[in-house]
Amino acid sequence: QVQLVESGGGLVQSGGSLTLSCVVFGTTLDAYAIGWFRQAPGRQREKISCTTSSDDITVYEDSVKGRFTVSRDNAKHAVYLQMNSLKPEDTAVYYCNARGVLNKDYWGQGTQVTVSS
To answer: In whole angstroms, what is the distance from residue 74 CA to residue 77 CA?
Structure first.
């Protein structure tokens, strides 16, 4: 079974930067579309970005557009989320998602990001 492991979360001050990583086990990245999601306490999980598997185009949600950047390293089976100009409202657990054939989803356990004011 495909497994995803997120890391890189932590505590950062408002305006700071943080980079998250998502390592994918059991498959190659080119077979999946990759998404980043986040969930704050008491709120629904929301999509931050989606990167297609075919053309490597990433679409960002308005709330993170211009501040967050997605990249990947196929050789390392890793996807990265570079977060800049962080705000307290960015505080959440961040998840990596891989969507394969038949829209089957695989999720990681998440990594906590806390932005202080």
So the answer is: 5
